[in-house]
Amino acid sequence: MTETVNIHEAKTHLSRILDKVSQGESVIIARSGQPIARLSRFESPQPGTSERVGFLKGQIEVPEDFDRLGGQAILDAFQGEDPNASAP
């Protein structure tokens, strides 16, 4: 069962509420009887289980000029020119 507390009680008993949350309970904070927030335990990933850096290593190739690809079209767009317009 989720406990609901008002803002004053939450401020007064924050440590007690956080102890409950750390044990896996959720607590709803209400203002004038209307729920405005839910406190729940933060689940951080276990060390070494989530590594995103380098996950595509060896699977893609980046061209040497990747930072210049489409450079003229981008420049034209910034200067207000239509890159699809035909030259006179």
Automatic annotation (TrEMBL):
InterPro entries (UniProt xref): Antitoxin_Phd/YefM, phD-YefM_TA_antitoxins, YefM-like_sf
Pfam family for this entry, one: PhdYeFM_antitox
PANTHER family tied to this protein: ANTITOXIN VAPB49-RELATED-RELATED
UniProt similarity note: Belongs to the phD/YefM antitoxin family.
Function of the protein: Antitoxin component of a type II toxin-antitoxin (TA) system.
Protein name per its UniProtKB record: Antitoxin
